[in-house]
Amino acid sequence: MPEPSTTRLNKRMAELGMCSRREADDWIARGWVRVDGQVAPMGLQVAADARIDVDPKARGQQQEQVTILLNKPIGYVSGQAEDGYQPAVVLVEERNHWRGDASKTRFAPQQLRGLAPAGRLDIDSIGLLVLTQDGRIARQLIGEDSGMEKEYLVRVTYGDVAADVQSAFPRAQLMRLRHGLSLDNQPLKPAQVDWQNPEQLRFVLTEGKKRQIRRMCEQVGLKVVGLKRIRIGRVLLGNLPVGQWRYLAPQERF
User: How many Å apart are CA 226 and CA 122, to the nearest integer?
Assistant: First the structure.
């Protein structure tokens, strides 16, 4: 009989939605993970039917992790500082905490530890940027198998046309934006693209290639003059002011 296939424990825990791989490695190193009743060593391979139990201390640590929703202004990069521009995480401080935040969570400096963007938003774009300490949310938003919807409002011009662009822009090119373009030698997944008003398109994407919307628009003769992300999954930017942030509430789900 063939040997049953196994998976590395940290990967299996991530697949089960228990934590991120990095988090799993930390828990295993602390002796917080048992497989079939035995404390698991680092690097263990497990079968699909292995029973994995996690110490309550790990769950407690996980509950303290925060996810932050920021309305990123123009001029900040999503991730690491580059070309003299600051990363968006520098805006996560007490004075920029939105007063309209309904969350009961209070800001504390340890919330910045390991806080990382779950996805990118260009330096010249504004809107919803998610920063999280929770590897499960990062995987949900940017994991290889993520199909999370992201919605954008995109102001455009078409050649010399800056007013009533909708009337000047060919219908066939709008259809190409919805399906038929490629980037980096790969066909893009179908997108929802509609006119929000005569100068503004609404895009809903389920993938996130670098500068994707701007590059899509270039291929059909449009120039993006303003781009704002307003939704990720079921979480809306709403009334959150530019440059301010709030916590993802306990009952909110992407």
Answer: 11
Give all strands (DSSP E) within 60-218, no chain letters: 67-72, 116-117, 126-132, 150-158, 182-183, 186-187, 192-197, 200-205
DSSP helix/strand/coil, 168: helix
Lookup: tokens for 251 = 């009952």
State the Cα angle at 12 between 54 and 17, rounded to 5°.
65
Residue 122 annotated to the active site: yes
Which H or E run includes 14?
A: helix 9-15
Q: Any idea which of 3-12, 83-92, 162-171, 229-238 has the lowest mean pLDDT?
A: 3-12
Note the pLDDT tens digit of each residue in 97-141: 999 998 888 898 889 988 999 988 999 999 999 999 888 888 888
Query: Which one from 25, 26, 122, 184 is the annotated catalytic residue?
Result: 122
Q: Which residues contact 57 (CB under 8 A, 6 or more apart)?
A: 30, 32
What gap in Å lies between CA 11 and CA 5, rounded to an integer?
A: 14
pTM surpassing 0.70?
yes
